[in-house]
Design goal:
The protein contains nine helices and two strands; from the N terminus they run H-E-H-E-H-H-H-H-H-H-H. By secondary structure, it is mainly α. It has a two-stranded parallel sheet. It is elongated and about 75 Å long. It starts with a helix and ends in a 5-residue tail after the last helix.
Amino acid sequence: GVNDAPALKQADIGVAMGRGGSEIAREASDIVLADDRFATIAHAVEEGRGIYGTLSRFIAWTLPTNGGEGFVILASVVAGGPLPLLPVQALWVNMSTSVLLGVPLAFDPHDPKAMERPPRDPKRPLLDRPLLLRIGLVSVLLWIAATGLFNLELARGHDAASGRSAAATAHVMGEAFYLFATRAGIRPFWTVGLLANRWLLGGLVAMMIAQWLVVSWPPLQVVMGTGSLDAIGWACTVAAGVAILAVVEIEKAIRRACGAVE
């Protein structure tokens, strides 16, 4: 998108007005604004900030969740224990959540306060230090949730298939609840209402139905290597998702207290 004038100046990019500028200025500039009305420029800047925000939120959601799935399998292989997630289950979680949760994220409304923030440093990388720390944090949380519920199901006397159902469902719940935290950026998750994005609401409902079928429908249990969960198992997966959301919100609150901005 079109960036702010201070940021363009920092990047040594010449900008000329398409209507009000001189011919010499237009020829010497890197960018010529065909419509140089202030309202148009302000709208372009706002749209650019909105697109950048959507892109950064999607990256902040998809990288930690994918990293968590890989971390569960890698840690189990290194430890030499049973896999809490089979490869086909990890593939299912990755594909289904990316389509049903990740894609609708693109339809979230732009931050209405985007124009109140100072210009972003053009040299600031998209994968900055806070985002890398978030990737590590959420990956570890998903690993703890999946591995913990897998072992809990085994301790409760259920077989490995039910344990893997709990692990996969914990991942789905964790990613769904983490999505609420991500779509609000550094703000509290409740500042962005669920009804603001009906595509996302539909994706959440479809994701829960699909995961229930994978866990509970016998033909899919055979294909996916899953087993049924009882009420306690389902409740634990929801609790795992809520816990992940709470930890991320605490992390965001700490960053806000330290003066961090998006």
